[in-house]
From TrEMBL:
Name of this protein: Ethylmalonyl-CoA decarboxylase
GO biological process: one example: fatty acid beta-oxidation
GO molecular-function term, one example from the UniProt record: methyl/ethyl malonyl-CoA decarboxylase activity
GO-annotated cellular components: cytosol
EC number(s) recorded for this UniProt protein: 4.1.1.94
Top-level taxon: Eukaryota
Family in the record: Belongs to the enoyl-CoA hydratase/isomerase family.
InterPro entries, sorted: ClpP/crotonase-like_dom_sf, Enoyl-CoA_hyd/isom_CS, Enoyl-CoA_hydra/iso
Function: Decarboxylates ethylmalonyl-CoA, a potentially toxic metabolite, to form butyryl-CoA, suggesting it might be involved in metabolite proofreading. Acts preferentially on (S)-ethylmalonyl-CoA but also has some activity on the (R)-isomer. Also has methylmalonyl-CoA decarboxylase activity at lower level.
Organism of derivation: Mesitornis unicolor
Catalytic activity, as annotated: (S)-methylmalonyl-CoA + H(+) = propanoyl-CoA + CO2; (2S)-ethylmalonyl-CoA + H(+) = butanoyl-CoA + CO2; (2R)-ethylmalonyl-CoA + H(+) = butanoyl-CoA + CO2
Pfam family membership, one: ECH_1
Keyword Lyase annotated: yes
Amino acid sequence: DGMNMCMFMQNTLTRLTRLPLISVALVQGRAVGGGAELTTACDFRLMTPGSEIRFVQKHMGLVPGWGGAARLVRIVGSTAALRLLSGAARVDPKKALCLGLSEETLSSPDETGALEEARAWLSQYTEGPASVIRAVKAVVTAGRELPLEAALRTEKDIFGTVWGGPANLEALVRRPK
């Protein structure tokens, strides 16, 4: 049963990571164990005051099984990931910022205010033509997951889909050289 859940959750979180849109985990309270793994599947992580991320699998006689360890290494590096996983360390917003595990600590501790603040923060990355945002996400995903040569080919191919497209032509009209 554990292996079936592991495979299901790896598949689910990998699909989340590869969505053609930008995702953000808003951590309010505690993201512990599987919740911590879920945060690693998002493109960005935001935290509220008093929140924490903690990989407690060690205390359960386990390791992360949903892909959280592999993604954590890519986010914070192998040494920091080893410390977080082997120490089951509590990561508060300040430490998360230092490690690169979080992009920002929001000021609002209440749910409604934090959600609005997170939406405003995310808008700087999601404003603009959806086709371009999807293309940006695709080239970043390729760069993260593929060998360099394949990532370069993918980037070229995706570039070809936006070059001369509506967003590109509109931008040229707005800002002629």
